[in-house]
Design brief:
Radius of gyration: 22 Å
CATH architecture of the largest domain: 2-Layer Sandwich
CATH superfamily of the largest domain: ATPase, nucleotide binding domain
Strand content: 15-25%
CATH class of the largest domain: Alpha Beta
Helix content: 25-40%
Distance between the termini: 52 Å
Number of strands: 24
Largest sheet: 7 strands, mixed
Number of helices: 18
Amino acid sequence: MFIGIDLGTSSVKMILIDQEQKILATSNLALTVQNPKDGYSEQNPQEWINATLECLEILKTKKPKEFSETISIGISGHMHGATLIDNAGSVIRPCILWNDTRSHAECVEFEKQNFDVRSISGNITMPGFTAPKINWLKNNETHNFNKIFKVLLPKDYLRFYLTGEYYSEMSDASGTLWLDTKNRKWSNKLLSCSFLEEKHMPKLVEGNKDTGILKNELKDKFHFNHNVIVVGGAGDNAAAAAGMGITEQKQSFISLGTSGVFFTPTKNFLSNTGDAVHSFCHCLPNKWHLMSVMLSASNCLDWVCSITNTSIQESLTNVERFYSEKSSISNAPFFLPYLSGERTPHNDPHIRGSFHSIKTTTDTTNMQYAVIEGVSFGILDGINSILKVNNNFKDIFMVGGGSRSSFWIELLASLLNRNLSVCDQSEYGAALGVARLAMYADKNIKNKSDIIKEIKISKDYMPNLEKMDVLMKRYLTWKELYSSNKQIASRLII
C-alpha cells in the first residue's frame, strides 16, 4: 500500500492506494491562512503537522489492515513557501506563502548581480518565489534571518517532521530561484544573492527517490508493519501532472483552481523569462516543464458570487444564458482578474482587479460574465507566453474546480481555438501523483515504466467558430486595459 499526502494552501488531502492504484481511502482537513497586511500571506507550520497526523488517523480508521501494510509515502506541497528552521529544528516564524507579494523591492535587489541570474534559474525574480522572501527577512527581520539553519519548502518541512531528514526534490526546488534548473543542482551563485550557502539548503533528490524512513515513534503510533519509506515527492502542479500521467512534451493541462495554471512538459530545459514563464524541473529524472501562472482564477468567481450574493451554480447558469445570446457579450463590461497582483506574463505585484465599461444597464450577470471572461483571457495570456518558446504540446486536459463547468470550457476552447478534454479527475489528483512516485520505492514492482499512466478522458470540447472573432476582439481590448491600468497601479496601493 502507498500513501499520498497533498499539503495544499487550504487543506491537507491524503489517499491510500494499492498496487493497482485503486484508491482505498481518503481524508481531508482544512487549513487557515493569515493575512496580517495587504499583500501578506502566512501560515503556521504546526497546522500542517496537526492536520497530517489527523488525516493519517482517519485513513487508519477507514482501512486499518491495508493502512498497516503501507510501504512508502509521497508528499506534494504548495510551492515557494519560506519555512525557516533554527539549529534546534524549531520553526523561527510563520511560513511566508507563495501568494505573498511583500518582497517586490527585494526582487530588484536579487537580480542586481555581476552575472545573469535568470540564465541560471531559468526564471524571472518574482515576489512569490522563495529567494526574495529571504532578502525581505534580511532587510526587515534581521533577528529572524540570523537564526536560519535551514530554509525548507512546506512539504519538505513536513518531511523533516516525519523522518528527521532534510531533503527536497527538483520540481519544488525549482521554485526557490536558488536552483540551477538546467543542471538540477543548487547554485552557489544564486544562493549568494540571498546571503545564503548550500549548507542552508536540504539535500536534493529526484521525486521518485528515497529520502529516509518514517520515525520510529510515528511508525509505532500508527502501527505500521514496515519501515515506511518517504520519497522525494513533488511541487503541487508537478504532482498533479504525475497524477494525470502528464510527463511527455505533447501533453499539457489547464488548471482552473484558486490560481490559473497552464502546464506542459519539455524534453529539455527551456525558458522565457521576458514573459515571466516558470521554467522548472519535472518530478521525474531528465524531464522539465514550462508553466504559466495567474494568481487569481476560480477565486475571482468565488469573490464576485460572494459580493453579489449568488451561488456559483446560479451564476454559471445565468452567465451561460447570457453568453448564448448573439450580441450580449459584445457589450459586456471587462474585468482584470488581478485581485492579488499577477505573475505570467506581467510579473506585476501592484496591479489589482478592476471592472471597465460599466453602464447603467450593467447587472449582476454582466459582471459575473466579465469575471469568467477575464480569467479566461489571463489563461490565454499564459499560453501565448509559452508558445513563444515551445509549441510541441497538442493534448490539453482541463482540471480544477472551474473545469466542472461545461460552459466555461466551451468558452476557453473557442478563445484558444483548441480542442480541450476533461478527464476523470478527483480532488486528490496531486495526492495520487505523489502516491505514484512512492510506488517507485516498492522493490516488488518490476516494471516501473507502467506506474505513471495517462488519466481517462470523459468528454472533449471543440471551439465554437461563431464566438471566436468576438472573443478575440475583446481580448485585444482587454490587453489595452491592463496597459493603461499599469501606469497608475502602484500609486493606488496604500
